[in-house]
Every structure is written in C-alpha cells, then in structure tokens.
C-alpha cells in the first residue's frame, strides 16, 4: 500500500498517460501551464473476492479515504461506490465491480481463470492499482467477453489501472461552463462521447460531465495485436447544494453513459 496520496496519484497518472497519449495533450490544452485539479479517477474490477471493489478500496482507505455513495447499474450488471478524502482537494475515487455471477457460465469460467492465475500478494502490493493485467489473454477470449460485456472485455485487457482521470472544471481558470470546455476539445480534434448527448447531467442534478472517447491502442494479445479502446479523459462541473456546499456525489444516470466511453464502436 502507498503511504502518501500524492505519490499514489502520480503513479496512477504516469501509467494512465502511457495508456492514453491524448490525455497529456488534453491536459496541456486545458491547463495552459497552470496546475489542474482532478475531480476524480475511476477504477474497474470483477466482484471476485480476491480482487473485488473492497480490495481496491482498501488501498485508498489506508490513506484516509471514506466510502460515501453507492450506485447500481442493473443493465450493465455492475455496482459502484465512491470514496472521498478528508482533504477535499484530493480527487474523489469511483470504483465499480462487475457482477460476474450474472453472466454466462463461459464468461464466469474465463474470469475465474484470470483471477486464479494471480498471486494473492499482488493485490496488497504498493503498485497493485497501476499494475495492469495479471493473466494471459488472447484475442478470441477478448472478443468472447466483448460480446457479453464491454466492461468485462476492458478489465480483461487492461487489468488494474486508472480507467480515467477527470478535470475539475470548477478549478479551470479559463472556462466558465462545460460547453466551452467541450468546444475547445472538439476544436482541437478530440472526439467526445456523445451517448445520451455530449453533456451528461444538469445543474438540477448538481453535476455536469463530459468525456472523450477512449484512445485506441495496439494491444499485444498472446496471439496477435489488435487496436482496442484504452482509457479516456473526463470533465466535471459541480454545483452547490441548497445549503451552499458543493455536491460531491455522482449521478447514476450520467455514469451509465460515461462507462460507454470505452465502447469499441
Ligand atoms: C466509470 C464511469 C462513471 C462517472 O464519473 O460518473 C464515472 C467507468 O467508466 O469506469 O466515471
Ligand atoms: Ni468519472
């Protein structure tokens, strides 16, 4: 486990920009040399005891993070929690887990095989949250998973690492609203996730979000290389609650669409 929040996020970021070359460019475009505050990052996993949401969360809880919200995505067959740090300038963390038992016996067998192949010590190692994949994967197995669940295929291919970082628009000096951010991104040639509209959420639900479509990388499967979606970048603008405090939760209906930023098509 890491002993310092900043070194953990630095390591997650370094891994993330290797998987997501466009993120470094987006970061440069929006920051204009200033620092960027991350609203949150997200991680994905399977709900198998050795690697489930709680196992990932323990790495953050040991640094002072506390579970704050529960989310359910029935159609995608996954659940999620978000975690906050007492220092509100630290990124929130959104962790989801796939409900493996709700899928076909074939998918269950494939995923169980991956997790069985992992040494138990891997999940408590300092670097677990940016350690990537711990199993052999061929392109046919990836395709079989993809046919049932984009999420399952993504975790199978990329393993343990940040799925996205999220720019806090509230802390961007040069932008007042999410439409301006989206416009700047599109003008620079980045492709936004348009599922359900480019802007997810509204001032009424106290959170507006947008995201790029994931970069495509040439994945080295055990049999061949295939271009597949890796990770994406998200942008979030938060509004104040009636009591004057900023809303710190997530919005399931919006999150449901954000997940699709790693869809193959
Ligand atoms: C998480 C999608 C949800 C948000 O901010 O609502 C999310 C994922 O794609 O793993 O990040
Ligand atoms: Ni997110």
UniProtKB/TrEMBL annotation:
Enzyme Commission number(s) of this protein: 1.13.11.93
What keywords are annotated for this sequence in UniProt? Dioxygenase, Iron, Oxidoreductase
InterPro entries in the record:
HGLS
Q: What does this protein need as cofactor? A: Fe(2+)
Q: Which Gene3D superfamilies match?
A: 3.10.180.50
Pfam entry (one): HGLS
Q: Where are the transmembrane segments?
A: none
Q: Where would one find the signal peptide in this protein?
A: none
Q: What class of enzyme is it?
A: oxidoreductase
PANTHER family listed in its UniProt record: 2-OXOADIPATE DIOXYGENASE_DECARBOXYLASE, CHLOROPLASTIC (PTHR31136:SF5), DUF1338 DOMAIN-CONTAINING PROTEIN (PTHR31136)
Family in the record? Belongs to the 2-oxoadipate dioxygenase/decarboxylase family.
Name listed for the protein in its UniProt record? 2-oxoadipate dioxygenase/decarboxylase
Recorded source organism is Shewanella surugensis
């Amino acid at each position: 486990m890491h002993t310092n929040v900043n070194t953990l996020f630095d390591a997650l970021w370094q891994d993330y920009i290797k998987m997501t070359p466009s993120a470094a460019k987006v970061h440069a475009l929006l920051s204009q040399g200033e620092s960027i505050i991350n609203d949150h990052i997200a991680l994905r996993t399977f709900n198998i005891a050795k690697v489930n949401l709680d196992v990932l969360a323990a790495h953050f809880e040991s640094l002072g993070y506390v579970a704050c919200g529960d989310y359910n995505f029935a159609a995608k067959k996954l659940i999620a929690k978000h975690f906050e740090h007492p220092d509100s300038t630290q990124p929130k963390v959104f962790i989801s887990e796939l409900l493996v038992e709700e899928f076909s016996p074939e998918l269950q067998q494939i995923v169980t095989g991956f997790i069985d192949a992992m040494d138990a010590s891997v999940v408590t190692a300092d670097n677990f949250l940016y350690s990537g994949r711990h199993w052999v994967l061929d392109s046919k197995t990836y395709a079989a998973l993809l046919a049932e669940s984009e999420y399952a295929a993504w975790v199978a291919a990329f393993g343990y690492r940040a799925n996205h970082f999220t720019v806090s628009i509230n802390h961007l000096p040069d932008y007042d609203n999410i439409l301006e951010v989206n416009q700047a991104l599109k003008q620079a040639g980045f492709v936004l996730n348009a599922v359900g509209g480019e802007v997810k959420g509204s001032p009424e639900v106290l959170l507006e979000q947008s995201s790029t479509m994931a970069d495509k990388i040439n994945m080295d499967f055990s049999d061949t290389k295939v271009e597949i979606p890796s990770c994406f970048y998200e942008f979030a603008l938060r509004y104040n609650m009636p009591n004057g405090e900023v809303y710190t939760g997530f919005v399931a209906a919006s999150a449901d669409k954000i997940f699709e930023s790693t869809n193959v098509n």
